[in-house]
Structures are given as structure tokens and as C-alpha cells.
Known about the structure:
Elements: H1 2-69, H2 73-84, H3 89-101, H4 108-120, H5 126-140, H6 146-157, H7 164-177, H8 181-192, H9 199-214
Helix pairs in contact: 1-2, 2-3, 3-4, 4-5, 5-6, 6-7, 7-8, 7-9, 8-9
Amino acid sequence: xxxxxxxxxxxxxxxxxxxxxxxxxxxxxxxxxxxxxxxxxxxxxxxxxxxxxxxxxxxxxxxxxxxxxxxxxxxxxxxxxxxxxxxxxxxxxxxxxxxxxxxxxxxxxxxxxxxxxxxxxxxxxxxxxxxxxxxxxxxxxxxxxxxxxxxxxxxxxxxxxxxxxxxxxxxxxxxxxxxxxxxxxxxxxxxxxxxxxxxxxxxxxxxxxxxxxxx
Length: 215
């Protein structure tokens, strides 16, 4: 009997403490619950908005491709540029490459600015980003100087990117086209020192080195 009384008193004391704690902190408790509830709603709203935006971008991308097929290139260009500036990693890059592949932008500065925007405002994987860096350098190699070309390709030259041999070959060809054979030879030779790359790069580098040796 005494044990039951002691147990009941302990339970009663515990409940009193809990009730006292609740009465003392109920404003904080309700505030915390309200904050969690609001955050939950905001997260759901954000996810739904993001998905809806993604659907709209996908629809606009398809619309732009239809305009290209109809040869309405100005409309296609305007839509694709809007998608590029939406900074959605997937559709921004797809739209940008479509602009390039269809030659919808002729102005060199506009094209370079778009390259910079895509590179700086999207979270790509390293190799996708390196691909865009290489494509920008390839595009600009016909009108920029040696220092700017080397600076543009520095991220590829200093790392182990799969685009490194592409960059070395591009620079070698750049110097070869200007009859600066000693500089060209330096970059072609670097290709031969790389391991585990496509054999085609070795062939091209050796071919260019042979041509310079025979000049």
C-alpha cells in the first residue's frame, strides 16, 4: 500500500512539474510550433514554385526549338536568352548551346558576355563547367591575344580535367597558325606526356610536330 502511495505521489509531482513548465513556457512552445509550421509551408511552397518554374522553362525551350524549325530565329533567340538568364543549370546551358549551334548570336561581345554569365551564375559539375570554358576559349581564339587565351584556359591547364588535352591542342594550333613554332611545339609536346587520354590527341600532336620538323 505504502509503495502505491509513494508511486502516486511521484506521478502527481511529475505531472505538476510538467504542468508548471507548460504554463510558464506555453508562449514559447506555441511560438516554436508556429515557426515550424510556417517553415514547413514555406518549404512546400518553394518546392512547388521551383518545379513550376522548371516546367515553364521546359515548355519555353520546346517552343524555341519549334520557332527554329519554322525559321523564326529572332523569336527563338529572345526566348532562349530569357532561359539562359533564368540561371537554371540544366535549361540555361541547353539554351545557350542551342543559341551557339544554331548561330543565333553573331555579335562577338554579346556571345562572350553570355559565356561569362553562364559560367558564373550556374552550379555545374566541374567537367561541364570546364567544357563551357573550353568552348568560350575556342570561340575567342580567333580574335583574342596570346595572354588572354592562356588566361582563359588556365583552369584546364592547371588541373586534370578531361578537357586538358583539348586545351593544349587548341593553344598549340593557335601558335602554329601564327608561325610561332617553338611555342606550338611546347604545347604539342605536353600532350605526348599525358596519360590515359584518347589516342587521337597523340596522333594530332605528333602530326603537327612532324609538320614543323619538315618546315
